[in-house]
Write a structure and sequence with these properties.
The protein is mainly α and 214 residues long. The chain has one domain. It is built from 4 helices and no strands. The radius of gyration is 35 Å and the shape is elongated.
């Protein structure tokens, strides 16, 4: 282990570290002699569980004292460089927004053109069907497809992100619906630990019992 960082914070912090390490090694050696075979052994285990948790807190306290000045330096450095990025952030946002707005407008105009051409084609087919009294051609009207090409310039290109949106929640397969855990948790709190009649079909209200240190 590299102890240089702890040494740089002074002999006191180093001694605290070594003292903690020694206490942990002693506690581990003692706790390994504790075997849990019966209920009375749980209290013995509890003594060391409590001891380890106390050591854990002490470790965190010492760590915070050591890293606090280092964290302050990191925050100051991060702030300096963040200010550099902040200098051009408004212009970056403007250019990005205006470029995307124009791209969206281009796509909308292309789609409008496609729909217009599709309507012209359908009108022509309907006219032909009426003229020759042949309605079968109506079922075979082709769909005009427009394949969007990625925009590419010397400096920019477009990328596509696959997205989705709900258009009719009632038709969504239930396996894609997420259970509202917060709502279930709130309802669970209103019931006792042991529940005879389950209030939500498909969900069982249970409880877990764990050891808690006094």
């Amino acid at each position: 282990m590299n102890m240089d960082i702890i040494k740089s914070e002074g002999i006191v912090k180093r001694e605290e570290y070594l003292s903690l390490k020694s206490n942990i090694e002693t506690a581990i050696k003692e706790s390994k002699g504790v075997m849990i075979f019966e209920e009375s052994d749980i209290d013995k285990a509890g003594f060391y569980i409590k001891k380890f948790k106390g050591l854990d807190k002490k470790i965190e306290d010492v760590r915070k004292v050591i890293v606090s000045p280092l964290n302050n330096e990191v925050k100051e450095i991060n702030s300096i460089f963040k200010n550099l990025s902040g200098m051009f952030a408004p212009e970056l946002t403007r250019l990005d927004k205006e470029s995307n707005d124009l791209l969206k407008d281009i796509r909308q105009r292309q789609e409008a053109q496609r729909l217009s051409e599709q309507k012209e084609l359908e009108d022509a087919v309907l006219f032909e069907a009426e003229m020759f009294n042949d309605l079968s051609v109506i079922d075979n009207i082709p769909q005009i497809e427009f394949k969007q090409q990625k925009l590419a310039t010397d400096n920019l290109t477009t990328q596509r992100k696959k997205t989705w949106k709900v258009i009719d929640k009632e038709k969504v397969d239930r396996k894609y619906l997420i259970i509202d855990e917060k709502m279930v948790d709130n309802l669970r709190k209103t019931y006792d630990f042991e529940v005879k009649e389950q209030p939500i079909e498909g969900i069982e209200f249970t409880f877990e019992e764990t050891i808690r240190i006094k």
